[in-house]
User: Fold these one by one.
Assistant:
Number 1:
Amino acid sequence: MSDTAAPRARMILPRPLIIGGAILLASVVVGLFPALFAPFDPNAFDYGALLQAPSWAHPMGTDNFGRDVLSRVIHAYTIDMQIAVFATIVPFVFGTIIGALVGYAGGWAEALFGRIVDAVITFPFLVLVIAIVSVLGPGLVNMYIAVGVVGWVFYARIIAAEIKVQKRLDYADAGRAMGYTHLRIIFRHLLPNAITPAIVYWMTDMALAILLGSSLGYLGLGAQPPAAEWGVQIADGKNFMATAWWISVFPGLAIVLTGLGFSLTGDGLAEVLRTKR
Amino acid sequence: MTDAMLEVRNLTTTFGHGRLTAVNDVSFTVRPGEVLGLVGESGSGKSVTLRSIMRLTPESGAVAGQVLWRGRDVLKMTASDLRRVRGGQISMIFQEPMTALNPVLPVFVQIEENLRAHTDLDRGARAARARELMDLVGIPDAARRLREYPHQFSGGMRQRVMIAIGLASNPKLLLADEPTTALDVTIQDQILKLILDLRDQLAMSVVLVTHDLGVVAATCDRMAVMYAGRIVETGTVAQVFAQPNHAYTRGLLGSVPHAGTERSMLLSIEGTPPPLGALPAGCAFHPRCDFATAPCRTTLPVLEDIAPDRSVACFNRAAVLAAGSPI
């Protein structure tokens, strides 16, 4: 770089983003290629090794069918990372678009939206999702639908509030004074300035989605046995909690670790994306 | 008048279902190549007038009257016609260059966006035009600075960028809403000179809203003084400065410090402008006026033409005239 050039703003990544990103990257790699990391077939029964405590042969022990818990935890990354993404991407995109339009339009659209928000937040999220899944039937796809039907409201609410602030700023008027269309002003000008909180929330939401997916799996409404899924595994181990704690505890720790990865990434992104003025 | 670019007739802007009248029966014309100053205190309605012309008032505002742009009423245009006029034929620059630029888009994108909306230039031509505009508004090292974001520019430079965006499609009228108020004095001067230079080069008209009579004296051809939503006096800058006909104009002129051979007291206008929701009867200025007489308290003086391009709304203009200009 020559001396006359202004010093390039060096991007110093915040530590939470580095740690969280590393956890997520590792999670994605494990989720994509579980067979490379798992020492055993996750569904292979071994009646010679039932309920074995963690050992060198089985670092996380075995369950009541002799299945290797480590292998099952590793294979569960595939399903649980999918849940994190698929259960949140539709609410994120749809909620963002609706929120941007509603926040910009104001008036009756906003009033109607307010009623929908009220209706949705009156019910506990989990109860609402369980209700929808029990109508549609258990399974992952129906769970995505159930979460999508309810979840977009939270994104829309965040974006609508931000857009309402942004649309009163001078650059929004400047855009109108320049003769740009409303849609252009909303999505090209206002939304990039408004989307940061939604992205940060999205990260948290992915962690919550894994918890939700595990909860539904535990209740038998999400992923179906014998699939390796953390919630299903925890449910599998509940009867052996006193004697074989490892069946439930290690999947639980995997949930905690992945959730931590999403939360740290969210915090780091919030720092990086903070708008410079 | 036939030679007017922009003719504003009886413009009235109210808020809250007519409870507040921010702009009241305002009429003026802008001719080709002319700089018109719209002067008044905070809350006199000058900025709302400008925004009403562009139909940029908040949703709660209702605008009545006519805004004839080359003979067509802007207030009655369809949305697509309005978009063609905005930014293409009439541009607007704002008081706060810090907030009037989009913080997340590089300057080049913001200039190019206007060109894309209002011209048929292809990609290469738009890039060339963007560099040309940066040169035109006096930003050195255009190629590099076009890639930068607004937060990498100083206040004065941002206002230049704002002007470059506004002028991208060669508008015929520039509406400037206190373009220098947020800037340092030295930078103010540069920006005003720039606007005047560009007016000459691009043969456009300018409406300059300001509360600073120094700015008016330095830049404008004609001026209109506003008080409580109404125009109280118009004329060429030379006429109004030499012979103010309205007590309010005289008061404004008296409150400007100026270099002279002898020291004189700085006049100030007592009190503050009335709230728009509770204007006094008669002339809105009468409670603060040294010249006020009985009719001022009951009857609203109308804006009368006293010469071509010269009008005033004051019952006691003879007395004001006799008192002379404080400058």
Number 2:
Amino acid sequence: MTKRPKQAAPGPLEYLRRWPLQAWLVMVTVFLYAPLLTLMAFSFNDSKRNIVWKGFTLKYYEKVLQNESLLTAFGNSLTIAAICTLVSVILGAMTALLLWRFRFGGKTVLDGAMALPIVVPEICMGVAMLVFFAKVMPWPGGLPWPLNLGAIIISHISFSFPFVAVVVRARMASFNRELEEAAKDLGAGEWMTIRDVIIPHMQPSLVAGALLAFTLSLDDFVITFFTSGPDTVTFPVKVYSMVRFSVTPEVNAASTILIVLTVILTALALRFQGTDAVAGGHAPDPKA
Amino acid sequence: MEQSWRKAKSVFALVLGPPLFWLVLFFLIPLAIVWVYSFGTNIGLTQIAFTGTFSNYVRAIEPLYVGIFIKSVGVAALTTGLCIVLGFPVALAITFAPDKLKAWLILLIMLPFWTNLLIRTYALIAVLRDEGYVNMTLNWLWTHAGGLMSFAGLKPLGDFVPLQLLHNNFAVVFGLVYVHLPFMVLPLYSALDRLDRSLLEASLDLGAGHARTMLQIVAPLALPGIASGILITFIPALGAYLTPDLLGGPDSQMIANIIERQFKRANDWPFGAALSFLLMYMTFIAIALQSVLAKRSAGPKA
């Protein structure tokens, strides 16, 4: 917080310049960040017991980089997130276009059904996927990578694409229909209008939606926990099994890598989108 | 300004087909199967007979499970309440911050939210466990205070007993608040940001204090935003699995943990299915309540 001690007293609504609110903000920030920052700091700590600071080391990062199963899990997570993002953006954009543009019977029902994956508790969706892939559509075992990740990818797409649809639809609300009419007047057909007028307008929200889908997929533990098998472990599932045993600097190191990756992704989002991509794209408010 | 689907059938078919196919096959059908299972009976290890029985639901109203349901609702409500208390001043600060600072403050709140849930939970374990940072700090203070007291001629304090901060209900609520706070701040902020500031100024001019302005002017006007913040926090908190699993103790089981156990360890899928649908119904009730509230508060204005 910038200190401006010799200024006039804060105006009636300048709440940010009042000390109780500043103190509160600092407290909340400490609450949110202290655990993560200490976690990152202690990944460099040269002590197995992870309690007292014994000196700087990178050996836990070396360990992480030599940990085959952790690296495989990390690769799996990134692959799943990438494929899930691609498919979710396509499906989400289609859904948004459908619900934004067309009038048809059963639209309200479909609209509600599309909101279901957003509101249904993760655990319910997890068990539904478990049952589905156990009884209805058993995912064949022993497929070559990355096909063996199919079940996880499918379930990730199922909960990601409605989020993308919400983001894209919000963007389409600001579309000027006259542009479309102009395109049609100038002789563009339905397809050409979509390609040259509507999709360019959608574009920022497609990027925001993609980032959202990527994070949702990378972040998911519960649903993956129910769909992953012994050969298809993702990073969160792997970390979960490590955490169950103990708190080790190795987990700290692996977590730090992922946190840094998250920060880089967020910075990229900011670069391309401004803060809207971070905040606007991430307000999961289906009602809004 | 929507157009009828008949005017552009091929486009309509293309944008309807794939999402509908995906939603039905990979979401609605799996849920429907779970729903059917909830009326089934286990016969043998992997066989489930669809007997149309309600016994799974009857079993769910045994005191043990009702207790867990009530407890889960209580924990989620407490979490939501604490998130409002913690988050409201933050949302207020963001709302009335200068534009440039505003963006950074939003980022400050959102960044932990983008971080992996498992990592955040793990970070809390490291903070709260017996050898965690909180207990270490307390231990240090204790020892030094003990030294100081014996120096002053008083009886020294006994050995430091670490506070039991992990594996109990406190840790679960702490963890849920930690995880869900950003969920609350954003809708609160977007509601506060839409407020007509002259109303606040008028209230302050006319002699109401800040607290009274908040309670009597801001809170009622921001009610829809507060309601959606409550919903967005309450629903995931109610269905939380990871936080009670990793931070909770034997008595901190929430609904999701019981469901997981039926599917993975107890191998009683029909009962687990019934419990998941009960959880889903509770979620829907919460959503319905919120939309009724939103409609009512929007009503007089319209």
